[in-house]
Amino acid sequence: MTTDDRTGPPLLGDERETLRAFLDYHRATLAMKCAGLTDEQLRERSVAPSTLTLLGLVRHMAEVERAWFHRTFEDHDAPMVWSKEIDFQAAYDASASTRSEAFAAWEAEVERSRRIEREAPSLDHVGHQPRWGEDVSLRLVMTHVLLDYARHNGHADFLREAIDGTTGA
Length: 169
Hints:
- The chain is built from five helices and two strands, in the order ααααββα.
- By secondary structure, it is mainly alpha-helical.
- A two-stranded antiparallel ribbon has the order 1-2.
């Protein structure tokens, strides 16, 4: 794996700084788990019957970023990245995808999410989560997305090790 250039969270940061830093740390972790691999390696499946791949995780996290930041705070009717319906499973099918396609979409969604978070006046900023039909705070959104990354980065650990034996981080 490449050099670990992730920035950890501040040891004495406030709540927003800490959430932002942990979220960016986990975003960087997913990118690091994919670093140096070919498109074919990124599409290598985990243990049968699962079809999970690193590229599928990147695509899924693009959907998560869009659904939780863009659709919640800016455009409730924005289409999903990889499906016409709200189907998070569709993103996992990376069989015809490439690194450049998946990472371009994911990085664009991450940048939009960062902008939305920066522009929000506080963690109490309220958006409407269309899938739930409920209002939610930016605090909840950031925590939910952080937990999603943490869970999937655990999957990425196993996928990367199965591909080339690389472990850690």
